[in-house]
Amino acid sequence: MTSRITPYLGYEDGDAAIEFLVKAFGFTEQFKMHMPDGSVGHADLDLAGSGIMLGCPPGYKSPRREGRPSDVLVHVYVDDVDAHYRQAKAAGATILEEPADQVYGDRRYTAEDLEGHRWMFAKHVRDAGNWWETTEEQPS
Fold first, then answer.
1. Domains of the chain, start order
2. Exposed, middle or buried by CB within 10 Å (0-12, 13-18, 19+), for 37?
3. Are 118 and 64 in contact (CB under 8 A)?
4. Are strands 8-10 and 50-55 parallel, antiparallel or unpaired?
5. pLDDT in tens, 37-65
6. pLDDT tens digits, residue range 72-86?
7. How far, in Å, are 2, 20, 26, 29 from residue 53 at the CA level?
8. How far apart are CA 71 and CA 61, in angstroms?
């Protein structure tokens, strides 16, 4: 089944964002269109059959420049979350949470890209069933 939801992220420097997303997170560039001013008007990136879109909207300021956390957290499943983490860290991603097993059955880490967008990368490692019935942690 094809994904019907595709995140579209704004970046001040689309070319630098694409380079980072490819190197750090393993995306591949599928399409890129520059505007007359040289900014990226639109780009499509793919990661194992799922994608994101990005562009440089006029007047856009990144979360990092604004000095605030990103309004969006992009969650992505990968085949090997620990290897993905090492690649992202080596490429300069800001690691917000180290890889850890979660009570609901995923192993995940959280990172921030060069403009402050937040990303969670995870692998489902076990079925958790009704974990809230066997733990003191309760779903919110």
1. 8-133 (3.10.180.10)
2. exposed
3. no
4. parallel
5. 999 999 999 999 999 999 999 999 999 99
6. 899 999 999 999 999
7. 15, 14, 15, 10
8. 12
